[in-house]
Amino acid sequence: MTYPEHFAALVSRDSALGEQVAPLRNLEAILKWAPGAGIPFAGIDLVQQDEYSYDLYLPSSFKALRWL
Q1: Side-chain-facing half-sphere of 58: CA atoms under 13 Å
Q2: Tell me: the pLDDT tens digits for 3-51?
Q3: What is the pTM of this model?
Q4: What is the phi-psi region of residue 30: left when phi exceeds 0, alpha when psi lies from -120 to 50, beta otherwise?
Q5: Residue ranges per domain, the chain?
Q6: Which CA distances in Å does 53 have to 36, 38, 46, 47, 48?
Q7: What are the DSSP calls for 1-68, one per residue?
């Protein structure tokens, strides 16, 4: 699934969250946004894929075990 497809699926499930994350364009912006959204840094997982690519996992709710 491509990023636009992932984003469209997120918006269809949770439009309020989609509005919050739509303007986030880089890791710095995401890390500034996360604490205000209730996502502790300890819950964030950054996985290096190669020298240019990373996967970033943010728990949107520890109880629901849903990831962004």
Answers
A1: 16
A2: 889 889 888 988 888 889 899 988 899 999 999 988 888 889 999 999 9
A3: 0.72
A4: alpha
A5: 3-67
A6: 26, 26, 10, 9, 6
A7: --HHHHHHHHHHH-HHHHHHHTT--SHHHHHHHHHHTT--GGG-EEEE-SSS-EEEE-EEETTTTEE-
